[in-house]
Amino acid sequence: MSSSQPKKKFYLILILGMLSAIGPFSIDMYLPAFPDIAKGLNTEVSKVMLSLSSFFIGISAGQLIYGPLLERFGRKKPLYIGLSIYMLASLGCALAASVNALIGLRLLQALGGCVGMVAARAMVRDLFDVKENAKVFSMLMLVVAVSPIIAPTAGGYVTALFGWRWVFAMLMIVDLIVLAGIYFLLPESKPPDPAFSLKPVPILKNFAGVIKHPQFYTYALTAAISAAGLYAYIGGSPSVFMGVFHVTEKQYGWIFALIAMGLIGASQINSVLLKNYTSEQIIKVALACQSTIGLILVALTLLGWGDLFITIFLIFLFLCCQGFTFPNASALSMAPFGHNAGSASALMGAIQMCIGACTSALVSIFQNSTALPMAAVMACCAIGAFTMYMVGRNIIYIRARAEAVAKGEVEMVSTL
């Protein structure tokens, strides 16, 4: 895309960012309503938290479905279908009569809404040069990261004024806005490919070809494990802030928004740093810092020194590191795949959400009315991501060196 089209580029990034934000918005907006939902459905907050885990599971499975569909039918038709499913499921959530119904409908809502996340990543690869991808992902994160500022704050006020069911009505309105943006602003970036098979065996072979690529699995897993720390925070923060520190729903929304500003700021600073540093260099430093911050958070929680303000400050720093890691790792994992970006995007998203669902569930399972389960899972995710990055980089280096040696031997033979 040429630099002579800044207005067009702005609208493209805006709508792609909104598509990417559907999932986070659907998560963040109802977090302040957990106590109200539990009261309204005569259950416990820990049971309501399972609706968050079911949402993560739905996103994980759904992305694997939409990857092949985006290759076969182009980008826009699957978007219309998925977001229509999301609309109907949101209506069901608003009318849910039991927590089990809510858990099931949240699964369906995720299966519909996750199409936006898959399509957005694939379209970045379709519409922009590979060298621009990390910067574009950073700009997408600016739009995505606005959702943790707007969504929980809006959700807290909507819940306080009208009740938790109206949160899902608001999500339906957001869905309508996104559908309008797709229709009027988003071009079809990839024509349908009738030759792309939707049979299970070719699809699995295609996914296998992507996942066995060292650059893909190194950076996709690095991004996913690191992001799992964010999902552990999302899953555990209602209990920690409203249960342990006894803040109100409205105060929780503002705390969530404040912490999210770290993610926004870091993702934009990342764009500036890319002028002088490589994505690999930025990831390495960010993950080392994130691991250290996670360990400090665990230590202070164990010692009983982690009061409200210290906890907020350390989580803020933790998410700042996430703002540097995710856009760079996403760009590097997608870089080798121009012809099947949809499948690569689906796999990356599925891995991310699957690990996120597990960490969210772990925080719920080990809930003990303290901040320790959330802090411990966050720290483990940061350390795990750093380890994956270091091991994966060695594998990539060894493979590249072996290929260079083999190529040199072939060239020597050809000159004899």
From TrEMBL:
PROSITE patterns: MFS (PS50850)
Location within or outside the cell: Cell membrane
GO molecular function term, any single one: xenobiotic transmembrane transporter activity
Gene3D superfamilies: Multidrug resistance protein D
InterPro entries hit by this protein: Efflux_drug-R_Bcr/CmlA, MFS, MFS_dom, MFS_trans_sf
Keyword vocabulary terms for this entry: Cell membrane, Membrane, Transmembrane, Transmembrane helix, Transport
GO biological process terms held by the UniProt record: xenobiotic detoxification by transmembrane export across the plasma membrane
First-listed, main subcellular location of the protein, grouped into a coarse class: membrane
Record-annotated membrane-spanning stretches: 12-33, 45-66, 78-97, 103-124, 136-158, 164-186, 216-234, 254-273, 285-303, 309-332, 344-366, 372-391
NCBIfam families to which the protein is assigned, alphabetical: efflux_Bcr_CflA (TIGR00710)
The protein's name in its UniProt record: Bcr/CflA family drug resistance efflux transporter
Species of origin: Niastella populi
